[in-house]
Amino acid sequence: MMNIYETLKDIIKGHRIILIDGRCGSGKSSLGRKLKEEFDTSLIHTDDFYLPFILRDKDWKDKLAGHMDFKRLREEVIKPYEDNKTFTPMGYNAHEDCSFELDEIDPLKPLIIEGSYSGYFKDDNYLIFVTCDKKTQEERLRKREGISFDNFRNIWIKKEEDFFEYYHIEEKADMKIYTGENND
Q1: What span, in angstroms and rounded, lies between the C-alpha atoms of 42 and 105?
Q2: Are strands 126-131 and 17-22 parallel, antiparallel or unpaired?
Q3: Number of Cβ within a 10 Å radius of residue 152
Q4: pLDDT at 182
Q5: In this predicted structure, what is the pLDDT of residue 183?
Q6: How far apart are CA 24 and CA 29, in angstroms?
Q7: Tell me, what's the pLDDT at 1?
Q8: 120-177, pLDDT tens digit by residue?
Q9: Cα 133 from Cα 178, distance rounded (Å)
């Protein structure tokens, strides 16, 4: 049986932009970091492209991906990358409400865009959808989010699932990776 990293190595060799979308707690960030280490890619996290609070609509929680700055991600990352420019984009930390400099992006390396909502940029890019069962997701998120878990579940999981359904992200995926330990 072929190792998943051998399969991903071939995919990375054949595509310039690889998107890793999927359910929160499924391992998207871990996969992105591992691929960056293994295959010397550039890596962008969609979490760094939230809209600053001052720019969000008052009803952003009620809007599909109302917290995402898709325009900035396209203009400051995807476009310069496709134009073969080396650049250093700015990220936004929503917890601290501040901008910060991200790692330099080299257009000669494959670019991985990891995180929920990255499937928005499917177009001709390669999309990996990472998922797990609900029990595993809850265990992982309780550990990661701690006392904020209930709030996270009530807001973010629903927003994510609504986004997947509206844009048919899971159905559009070129590859699906299941990281769960249980069967629903």
Answers
A1: 6
A2: parallel
A3: 16
A4: 64
A5: 54
A6: 9
A7: 36
A8: 999 999 999 999 999 999 999 999 999 999 988 888 999 999 999 999 999 999 999 9
A9: 8
